Amino acid sequence: MSTVENPHAGKGSSVLLDIGGDIGALVVTLPAVLEGEEIELRPGDFASTHAGRHAHGHGHGHSHALPHVAVVPRPSPDGEIVHSAVFFEVPQGNYELYVRPDGPVQLTVDVTGGVVTEADWPQ
Hints:
Helix content: under 10%
Radius of gyration: 16 Å
CATH architecture of the domain at 23-50 and 63-120: Sandwich
Oligomer: single chain
Largest sheet: 4 strands, mixed
Number of strands: 8
C-alpha cells in the first residue's frame, strides 16, 4: 500500500489548521541550526505509562507512532524567516517535545482545544 505525501511538506508552505472542540494546534519556534531535524510530540505521561509494559527488551510487532514534523524555515508576516515545527490536530493535553529519535525532552507544553498554542524551543 502506498501513501501520497504532501508535495509541499517541508518546504515552508502555508499550513491549514483544523481546530475546534478539544482539538488544538501547536506551533514551535526553533533555532535555525535545527533546520531539517524531526521534532516528536508525545503525551506528557507517555514515558511513565509505557515504561513498565516495554521494559523487557523485545518488540511485539507494533509501534507507538507519535506525531513528528520537520523544522522548516517559514516567512513571518513581517518578512523575517522563522524556523518552526507545526503540529496540527493535537488533542488537548500536556506534551513533551524532543528531537527524534530519542533526544532528551527539551520542551513541555499544554495544548488547549480550539486554539493555536505557540511555544519557543530553548536556545
